[in-house]
User: Fold these one by one.
Assistant:
Number 1:
Amino acid sequence: LKIAVFASGSGSNFQALVESLRASNAPAAEIALLVCDKPQAKVAERAERLSVPAFLFSPKNYPSREAYEKEIVAKLEEAGIGLIVLAGYMRLVTDTLVAPYYGRMINIHPAILPSFPGLNAIGQALEHGVKVTGATVHFVDGGMDSGPIIAQRVVEVREEDTEDSLAKRIQAVEHELLPQSVRLIAEGRVSIDKRKVNVRLGD
Ligand code: GRF
């Protein structure tokens, strides 16, 4: 299974995924492409260091979102990509991308969805005063963090937490949850039944 990761920022999830898939030689799954809308982002450096091919683009050089999404689809097809992982990709994806990849595009979000979708989920959770939050991996359906949920893990909020301290613990969880989810998909254990995702464990 050839996988493309879309990211805009630091790319710690990108790196965790590359390293985890390389370490487990089990199912044939590899990160074959990074798609990044911020050519200066740290994730682009990580891709270079890890020898992962990258498509770096600047949205402002295109007349519309549709125009760059069409180009992305062409790159994905050229590379034979079968799964897209959004990991800190800070742009909405539209039907140009979602329609051809529905059921083959996942996202990781730093909260227990459907709580705290959108930007600054960790700040939202602190602001709300919840006692637990966490991370969610879900299929992308064109809404904002709204698609069918594949996996979630909870993180306790501590009295003394700041956004930074809480983000650190959520990220540590993400770095396990995302590779686990990708492996389950690569092994063909994940299926969507309308709103619900079934995960077949064991055997
Ligand atoms: C992660 O917390 C992810 O949940 C969110 O964006 C962050 C990306 O972090 N969608 P990184 O770039 O992988 O370090």
Number 2:
Amino acid sequence: FTNEELLAADALKSIARDQQIKKYIQQSSDLYPLLLRAANRFVSGETREEGIKKALELSARGYMVSLEYIGENTKTIDDCVYAKNEFLALIKEAGSQLTETTVSLDLSHIGLSVDSDLAYKHIDELAREAKRLNVSIMISMEEAAKTDKILDVYKKVSEYYRNVGITIQAYLERSVTDMKELLHYPGKVRVVKGAYQETEGVTIPRSQNLNERYLHLVDLLVQANHAVSIATHDETLIREMHKRDYLSLPHVEVEMLYGIRPDLLKQLKEDHFKARVYLTYGTEWYLYLCHRLAEYPPNIYVAIADIVNP
Ligand code: FAD
């Protein structure tokens, strides 16, 4: 990436969480619809109905879907209960309309930022309903400061529910140790490279070294016959796993974010591999858009083109 692109990416990371900018955009009748146009490439819409509609379309085209109601770091109990109820409604609707669904969530969206017990109470309620409707839940992994708490809640809920999975970030130094432990739990493990800006020494930057770590984590899962979601858009990694004959294994799937490398995911689906689209909806699309632009700065030009030429 150019220096300018990297500077823009850094700025976007700060802008994404700035409450005043967010409020300004939400109240601006000029800016709001323009940015929503750019977001439409990456999110299904603002409402659950739009999420389910897009999920049904993708499912009819042969993809599996993970659905997420966008949000994180919910600060009040009322807002956590609101988010949990939205997920409950999503599980009910997705469970009754789609044959195979995963609902994906950040624990900090439903309680972890208030306290771990609240997050556990909520995920327990969601997992119970999801199990009844044959829906899976996938817990996302957040900043390194939350890793222990997230793993603790996952392990606790896994004692009762096999339909709950967990995400592991290959860029964390600790992940190989964590993975060896996670192999003893029943839930699917989603392997990602990792998306957060952490203090130095906590993570490995994008590199060949990181790709080798990623492959090692997938190896551990495959060799243990453990359900795994290979969540990456990295063609080199996917090609390597194809070479190792992982992609045709019944417990292996490839998962990509909606709107990012749809060509690659389509090719995998046409080659009869299990292909899952991670699809989001919600009024917090602005945060999600900033993340997608920041992690791949050339997307800034794509966003401008979407705004100018919808
Ligand atoms: P990279 O090395 O970042 O990218 C490889 C190539 O993919 C790039 O060269 C480019 O061609 C393409 N690419 C990557 N990103 C983009 C983009 N935004 N736009 C266009 N092209 C792009 N991270 C977490 O920390 N916690 C989570 O819980 C989490 N859940 C995820 C769930 C799913 C299903 C996926 C796919 C990702 C998730 N992530 C999560 C994000 C992940 O950590 C990475 O930041 C993201 O996937 C980009 O890394 P990559 O593996 O695609 O490889």
